[in-house]
Amino acid sequence: MARTGSNRSAFPPDWWARGAWLLLLAYLLYAASHLELTPARFAAGLEHGAKFLARLFPPDFRRWELLVKGMVESLQIAVVASALGSLLSLPLALLAARNLMPVWASWPARAVMVVCRSFHPVIVAILFVKAVGFGALAGILALTVASVGFLGKLMTEAIEEISLKQVEAVRATGAPFASVVTYAVLPQVFSRFVGFVSYETDANLRNSTMVGIVGAGGIGGTLFAAFQRFDYDFVCAIVLTIIALIMAGEVLTVQVKKVFRA
Amino acid sequence: MSAALSVRGLVKEYVPGKPVLRGIDLDFEARGISAVIGPSGTGKSTLIRCINRLVEPTAGQVIFEGRDLVKLSRAELRSARRRIGMVFQEYNLVERLSVMENLLCGRLGYVSPLKAWLRRYPGGDIARAFELLDIVGLGDFAQARADSLSGGQRQRVGIARAMMQEPRLLLADEPTSSLDPKTSVEIMGLMQTLAQAHGFPVIVNIHNVELARRFADRIVGMTGGGVVYDGTPERITEQHLKEIYGGEDWLE
Hints:
The structure holds 2 protein chains of 2 kinds.
Chain A: H1 15-34, H2 39-56, H3 64-96, H4 103-118, H5 121-132, H6 136-160, H7 164-172, H8 177-208, H9 219-228, H10 232-259
Chain B: E1 5-15, E2 18-28, E3 33-37, H1 44-51, E4 59-64, E5 67-68, H2 74-81, E6 84-87, H3 99-104, H4 113-117, H5 123-135, H6 151-164, E7 169-173, H7 181-198, E8 202-205, H8 209-215, E9 218-223, E10 226-231, H9 238-245
Parallel strand pairs in B: 3-8, 3-9, 6-7, 7-8
Antiparallel strand pairs in B: 1-2, 1-4, 4-5, 9-10
């Protein structure tokens, strides 16, 4: 039955949606009060922050040997972990690609990647510190695991998007499977892989400065110790150096991608 | 003389109970172009792909050089495929590889994966590749990337890649459907020349009846998964074409 005249409304009120918005607002207010998020607390925090900022400057580079040693170790952890991660994730991604492999091969490979991706690198680093002891080895292993998780997933998706026509043509020549992979699959995905690896190296560079906090080597340990001793000017020097390193890494990855025409 | 290729009782069902090919029987002599015509979806592509088992047949035999290809193991099938060249509608070149690398794909069945990856091909293969590039008129394009070529050039590379295999049988799945009329004639002419020079059977799926009449020595008309005409291009009549494609308005 068609409704007529004044009964029709262009924008009928949706009471369910209004109720939901009200509930959300009520919960926000409750959560804020529960965490004592009051204007007074915020003002106190700002004052504290101002003092902290003041103590950060000027940065203190006098212990530069410690700084350089930590940064070099972090850099090495990042590069070694990225290389290991790339080498491991390539075959794993080939196994996991459902357009090339039967279910019994792709399913376990996917499971390995999911496990690698389940935990934050710092948590994995804690596990490896307990397993292999303090130092860079634990950091390398932790970041390798993280790299396999992410690179594996990205590479698998890239392989699953390739054109199967090219694969069909190479297969029709009687090529063995390994040659089908190197001639029909890898050329289609290689430049994307270069992009993925440089992205992961960038992420590892950042993460490698952090795993040191739990004793897995690198600048993180030095940073954490400086915090504990309230050496805020040294903290500032470390943070500035990390920023410089990440920026340098960014410039480098752009160059790498240019070389491989990504 | 026994046929170079015999297809016996070939059946393919993608969905059980719904055959796309309903028991095809065909013999191909070691010479000349056989054109397979028929409406879209009638199983022409499936027929061609069942011969080199890019599609697995449901039943039947494909006898090539004295062996039933349907019964071969994976390794035996690979070595049989080395002698069966294939040309595709959309060329199916590996776009990011050079023309030379695409041609050498035709030798992958003979070269170990490691040597192929390192591009260490026997000198004879490389000489043959340059020779074929000259034959198909792409002598200056060896280092060009495949995706920089035009459609006609790509199909020439596709044919050269198939010829690199020194095939005893050439399958072509709609080789001219993506090309303009003039290039289509050139491509069919090239395949005719090669087939006559080397003496292997060529099986071509083709939509263009005029091209089929002009270049083929034999026409196989298919409809509904079965063969309804098999004979010389001269004898095919409008009545046959009506039976193959259905209706008659399009013939006006």
